[in-house]
């Protein structure tokens, strides 16, 4: 049986198109049928699994997928045993604290004793611990930006790219706690066949990135 490299990418969402595009630029053709969970490359020994981004680190840790394309924010939040091997240059954003526009945030001490809404409790808690701040974290899975407006929180910690979502909700960015972009992660104990295929893919990814600079 021919060995294949099993790759996890986002099924739909902000990283899906750029992930497929990067593979294509690497000369790898994926037939991407809508609603398909799995696909096979026609010209590279590769199988692609389409998954929720949140699940990708776990799949890679378990070795169900050998590698995955996912946001660094998700990698650090899930904290699984998967290794970041390459930054992919798309999906750029930052995880930031934001407060109501009128609030005077000078540094993290502002957060002492306050309520913060976020979908990133792990990364936020690490930040607070490092700053020696005690705050109450409210974990919510979406629409974090409305939390201050409805009295659920004093501040939020969420992903920002253009900043327009914050602006529309009367919030301002107070502090960035993580810069993020899509990365390639790999299972920690790849077999030698998979490692050879990964090296081949990485060689092509690096060439694509270089051509863009
Ligand atoms: O369904 P699934 O779970 O796979 O997808 P998802 O809804 O969890 O993730 P998705 O598709 O929204 O984002 C996937 C990844 O894209 C994230 O994990 C980040 O690594 C990256 N990314 C880049 C972003 C953004 N930019 C971004 N702006 N993810 C989310 N946002 C959201 C942010 O949460 C906020 O609501 O966009 C809004 C802010 O955008 P601006 O431009 O108004 O600042
Ligand atoms: Zn998700």
TrEMBL record:
Catalysed conversion reaction: 1-(5-phospho-beta-D-ribosyl)-ATP + diphosphate = 5-phospho-alpha-D-ribose 1-diphosphate + ATP
Cofactor: Mg(2+)
Limits of the ATP phosphoribosyltransferase catalytic domain: 52-206
Activity regulation comment: Feedback inhibited by histidine.
Cellular component GO terms held in the UniProt record: cytoplasm
Subcellular location: Cytoplasm
Any GO BP: L-histidine biosynthetic process
Pathway per the UniProt entry: Amino-acid biosynthesis; L-histidine biosynthesis; L-histidine from 5-phospho-alpha-D-ribose 1-diphosphate: step 1/9
Protein keywords: Amino-acid biosynthesis, ATP-binding, Cytoplasm, Glycosyltransferase, Histidine biosynthesis, Magnesium, Metal-binding, Nucleotide-binding, Transferase
Enzyme Commission number(s): 2.4.2.17
Single GO molecular function: ATP phosphoribosyltransferase activity
Role description: Catalyzes the condensation of ATP and 5-phosphoribose 1-diphosphate to form N'-(5'-phosphoribosyl)-ATP (PR-ATP). Has a crucial role in the pathway because the rate of histidine biosynthesis seems to be controlled primarily by regulation of HisG enzymatic activity.
Family designation: Belongs to the ATP phosphoribosyltransferase family. Long subfamily.
Designated name of the protein: ATP phosphoribosyltransferase
Protein encoded by which gene: hisG
Residues of the full protein shown: 1 to 213 of 286
């Amino acid at each position: 049986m021919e060995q294949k490299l099993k790759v996890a990418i986002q099924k739909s969402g902000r990283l899906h198109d750029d992930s497929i595009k990067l593979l294509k630029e690497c000369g790898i053709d994926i037939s991407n049928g809508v609603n398909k969970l799995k696909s096979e490359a026609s010209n590279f020994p590769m199988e692609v699994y389409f998954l929720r981004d949140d699940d990708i680190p776990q799949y890679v840790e378990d070795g169900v997928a050998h590698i995955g394309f996912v946001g660094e924010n998700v990698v650090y939040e899930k904290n699984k045993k998967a290794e970041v091997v390459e930054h992919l240059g798309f999906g750029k954003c930052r995880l930031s604290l934001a407060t109501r526009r009128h609030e005077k945030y000078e540094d993290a001490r502002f957060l002492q004793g306050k309520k913060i809404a976020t979908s990133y409790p792990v990364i936020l808690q690490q930040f607070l611990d490092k700053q020696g701040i005690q705050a109450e974290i409210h974990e919510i899975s979406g629409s974090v930006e409305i939390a201050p407006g409805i009295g659920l929180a004093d501040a939020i910690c969420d992903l920002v790219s253009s900043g327009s979502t914050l602006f529309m909700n009367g919030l301002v960015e107070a502090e960035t706690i993580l810069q993020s972009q899509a990365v390639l992660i790999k299972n920690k104990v790849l077999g030698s066949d998979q490692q050879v295929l990964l090296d081949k893919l990485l060689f092509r990814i690096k060439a694509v990135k270089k051509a863009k600079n």
